[in-house]
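Data deposition worksheet. Section B asks for the primary sequence of the deposited chain exactly as it was used as input, without tags or linkers unless they were present during the calculation. Section C holds the resulting structure in token form. Section D is free text for depositor observations; keep each observation to a single sentence. Incomplete worksheets are returned to the depositor.
Section A, Depositor: J.P.
Section B:
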Amino acid sequence: MASEKRELVGFSRGIDAGLMLEGYRKGVFAMSYWGLMYQWWSPDPRGILPLDGLRVSRSLRKSASHYRVSFDEDFDEVLAFCADPQRPGGWIDPGLEAAYRDLHRLGHAHSVEARDSEGGLAGGLFVVNIGGFVSGESMFHRARDASKVALIGLVERLRDSGQPVLLDTQWRTEHLASLGVVDVPRPHYLARLRQVIDLPDVW
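Section C:
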């Protein structure tokens, strides 16, 4: 079995939007360590979702017909659901939540919403975008397949941009693998990142 390096590369006491942007440009990202400090990660291998590799099952395609996808209509609410401290494995503490809100105000963080037939928020996700780099940060659902439908909407939007895009998922989990996420070696990831980070923002 291939070994996986989870590659914790540093710590910081505080966090802010500027520090996060600097980290993304270098291929690292922050997660809260129980609210005590912030861990900075650079996984090897790194999970990415090739835009032409998204897997949409027949049942998921059927589910998608029951939702409407919107963009940046409810960033604060999407973030609040993703940062819910009751979520298992939650890693977005108040400091990170505030930094993401600042990134949104700066035009670097965006939400994708999946809405039910009455317009209610059924699920969604949020990302950080710099140039052609897009980092999928977190997703949630309140109804079946809603977060996956939001992901479909995100990929379609990125495909429509017409420019090279690196869609980063940090790690490849079993769930993400079922949607098409693959592992790439960290040197390959960093080379791809350098190719797209200074392009015009894809969003």
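Section D:
The domain at 45-196 is CATH 3.40.630.70 (Aminopeptidase).
Residues 46 and 189 are 7 Å apart (CA to CA).
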